[in-house]
Write the structure tokens for this entry.
Amino acid sequence: MVPFCSGDGSGTEDTVARRIRMVDEQLRRRGICDERVLQAMAKVPRENFVFPELLGQSYADAPLPIGFGQTISQPYMVATMVEALEVAPTDRVLEVGTGTGYEAAILGELAAEVWTVERHEELAERARQILGDMGYSNVHVTWGDGSVGLPAYAPFDKILVAAGAPQIPEALTAQLTIAGRLVVPVGTRTEQQLYVVEKTQEGPVASSRVLCAFVPLVGEQGWKL
């Protein structure tokens, strides 16, 4: 297993300064205004979730490779999706597409409990180790097909999908509470529109937000290999 830069601290003086600058320049100036999201992004050290050789790019305005053809998402896109999710402190949240656990850590700062699913077993193990070292006891990492959710732990108040789906997965909307919210990129394998789905008594209501580009959601209710 290739080690990541795990630790329980918040970073060196230099990385903390770069993190605060990232929040101010990449997030606030581009319209992210939820203070709880901004505080979480300012607290979680993104450098803990990247390869050692990419430490200097930890706060770049771009996704970074983490192995297995996967990426850690651009900070602005993480903030955009989490803000759209409208996480409350009492929420139970499902994340699909753990990667190395960065977005799960952000969600762990905001929600009561987080379940996160990763289809690559080694990435799931890395995320579990990193998040454990950082003390996120409220974040539970699992390995499997996230496109079908985690029915054993449903329902969830909020679901976030960090991979591009060909359509809104019905299994995920089925696992939402009434008034729950799903944020998911939907489109082709290379370009998607970010959708927010709200579950009402009458059924799911979807609205589109920004264009985005995520790795494909592979699974039973996603893309096939």
Observations:
- The chain has one domain: 13-212.
